[in-house]
Structures are given as structure tokens and as C-alpha cells.
């Protein structure tokens, strides 16, 4: 179960934001960036695994305190893109999204490039086959 550390109190009660929610926001913000082919689950057994877009918290590690958050993104970039530009854009987008949606202050967004994604031409080849 995700820890609920981000907490704000007001006159009515308190608001708690689970770490996983911050991770999902970060993952969604990262996958919006042109040049990111997908998120990586990290290096498991020395192999970076491409993950689908349905689980947006994959490839994201967050540390959430009471008022601050730190994020690590594990991404796979598209071949032919300029990696520093993609990484900087991802950092800015993730920081803005988390701060706007949660009110937390994002102290750092670390981008870890785990691989390069190539366009798959297999579906076109299958269309031209005659059965």
C-alpha cells in the first residue's frame, strides 16, 4: 500500500496525496513529451524493458515529503531525437504538472535514459503479405 505522506491541513480537515498519485502524474507528464518512446522499469537483470503506456507509474520513482517531492524518471528516447532537449523538456513538464496538481514543491527531477527506441516496421510488412 502506498504511503500517504503529502498532507495539507485546513480548517475543514486534511488532504493526503499518496506517493503513487504523484508517480502517475509524473509518468503522464513525461509520456506527453515528443521524443520519449516509453518508460523503462529500470535495469532488471541488465535489460531495460519497454513498458506500455497504461501503467503510468512505471519508470517513475518518487520521494514525497510533507511539502516537497523528488522524482526520478527512467525513459527510453526515440532514435534521432536530441537527448538533452528531450530530458530538459521532460524535467520542466513533470515539475510543472506535479506542482500545479498537488501544490507540492518539486526540488528535483532526475532523468535516467535507459535506452533508444526504434520505429517498428513489422506491421507494414505484414500488410503486404499474401496468404
Number of domain units: 1
CATH superfamily: Cation efflux protein, cytoplasmic domain
Give the number of DSSP strands: 7
Kindly provide the name of the CATH class: Alpha Beta
**Uncertain residue ranges:** 43-49, 121-129
Rg from alpha-carbon coordinates: 17 Å
Tally of helical runs: 3
Please give a handful of descriptors for the protein shown.
7 strands, Alpha-Beta Plaits, two-stranded antiparallel sheet, 5-stranded mixed β-sheet, 131 residues, disordered C terminus, alpha+beta, 3 helices
Task: Please tell me about this protein's structure.
There is one protein chain. The chain has 131 residues and is of the alpha+beta class. It has one domain (6-127): 2-Layer Sandwich (Alpha-Beta Plaits), CATH 3.30.70.1350. The chain is 30% helix and 39% strand. It is built from 3 helices and 7 strands; from the N terminus they run ββαββββαβα. The chain has helices at 19-31, 83-102, 122-127; strands at residues 6-9, 14-17, 36-44, 47-51, 60-64, 68-78, 105-117. 29% of the residues are buried.
Task: Summarize the topology.
Layout: E1 6-9, E2 14-17, H1 19-31, E3 36-44, E4 47-51, E5 60-64, E6 68-78, H2 83-102, E7 105-117, H3 122-127
Parallel strand pairs: 6-7
Antiparallel strand pairs: 1-2, 3-4, 3-6, 5-6
Helix pairs in contact: 1-2
Explain briefly what this protein structure is.
The chain is an alpha+beta fold and 131 residues long. It contains three helices and seven strands; from the N terminus they run ββαββββαβα.
Amino acid at each position: 500500500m502506498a504511503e500517504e505522506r503529502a498532507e495539507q491541513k485546513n480548517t475543514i480537515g486534511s488532504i493526503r496525496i499518496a506517493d503513487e498519485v504523484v508517480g502517475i502524474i509524473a509518468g503522464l507528464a513525461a509520456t506527453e513529451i515528443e521524443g520519449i518512446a516509453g518508460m523503462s522499469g529500470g535495469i532488471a537483470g541488465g535489460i531495460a524493458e519497454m513498458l506500455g503506456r497504461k501503467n503510468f507509474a512505471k519508470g517513475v520513482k518518487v520521494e514525497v515529503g510533507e511539502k516537497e517531492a523528488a522524482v526520478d524518471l527512467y525513459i527510453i528516447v526515440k532514435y534521432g531525437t536530441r537527448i538533452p532537449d528531450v530530458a530538459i523538456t521532460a524535467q520542466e513538464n513533470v515539475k510543472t504538472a506535479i506542482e500545479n496538481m498537488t501544490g507540492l514543491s518539486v526540488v528535483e527531477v532526475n532523468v535516467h535514459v535507459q535506452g533508444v527506441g526504434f520505429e517498428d516496421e513489422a506491421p507494414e510488412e505484414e500488410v503486404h503479405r499474401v496468404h
